[in-house]
């Protein structure tokens, strides 16, 4: 009889351990190290936002993974991709004469592109950033910077840097074939002859008027 009770007790313990494992979920497996590897600089940003409280930061990041981790990237047609690339090039040209207008347009363009790729729709900035941070943690800061520059008073240099950072996320979203969780560097958009046709760099020859450069 005692043997039966021992076996039953062992079975109960095993069931409890399995239940704890399932409740913990993929976000907890590997603990903070796993989240830090996945989110990179975004992990440090969230920890700082929570005044160094790593447990609170990890709870927030785990919640993001639960909400957005299964998101599937929608493809762009070649025509739509070309339209986005051309629009970004036009915005860069606009930056030379009207930096503030260009930054506002870049902010809207990234939001629209993210929505077209399957992230939360344009107009849902907080949810877009949350989802983008799960899948593109290395580039999401560029969206934050250009959005902030578009909605606050910024110097020309700050706006230029915001555009350059936003370009990284734009490039990733317009060319990526799948959501890569920030583990792969973005590829360049090439034309049918294999040449890059996306003039994304705000080069030395394109300083905005009044920048003093």
From TrEMBL:
Q: Where is the composition biased (Basic residues)?
A: 204-213
Tell me where on the tree of life, at the top rank, the source sits. Answer: Bacteria
Q: Where is this region: Disordered?
A: 177-213
**Biased composition annotated in UniProt, kind: Basic and acidic residues:** 177-193
Membrane-crossing ranges are: 6-27
Supply the alphabetized keyword list. Membrane, Transmembrane, Transmembrane helix
What is this protein called in UniProt? Answer: Secreted protein
- Give the originating organism: Streptomyces flavidovirens
């Amino acid at each position: 009889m005692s043997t039966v009770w021992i076996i039953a007790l062992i079975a109960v313990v095993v069931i409890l351990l399995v239940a704890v494992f399932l409740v913990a979920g993929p976000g907890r497996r590997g603990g903070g190290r796993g989240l830090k590897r996945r989110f990179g600089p975004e992990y440090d940003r969230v920890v700082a936002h929570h005044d160094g409280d790593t447990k609170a930061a990890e709870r927030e990041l785990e919640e993001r993974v639960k909400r957005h981790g299964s998101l599937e990237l929608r493809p762009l047609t070649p025509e739509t991709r070309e339209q986005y690339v051309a629009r970004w090039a036009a915005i860069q040209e606009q930056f030379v004469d009207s930096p503030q207008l260009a930054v506002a347009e870049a902010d809207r363009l990234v939001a629209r592109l993210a929505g077209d790729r399957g992230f939360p729709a344009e107009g849902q900035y907080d949810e877009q950033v949350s989802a983008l941070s799960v899948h593109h943690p290395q580039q999401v800061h560029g969206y934050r910077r250009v959005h902030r520059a578009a909605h606050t008073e910024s110097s020309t240099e700050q706006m230029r840097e915001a555009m350059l950072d936003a370009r990284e996320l734009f490039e990733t979203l317009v060319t990526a074939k799948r959501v890569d969780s920030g583990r792969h560097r973005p590829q360049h958009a090439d034309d049918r002859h294999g040449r890059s046709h996306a003039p994304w760099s705000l080069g030395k020859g394109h300083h905005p008027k009044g920048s003093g450069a």
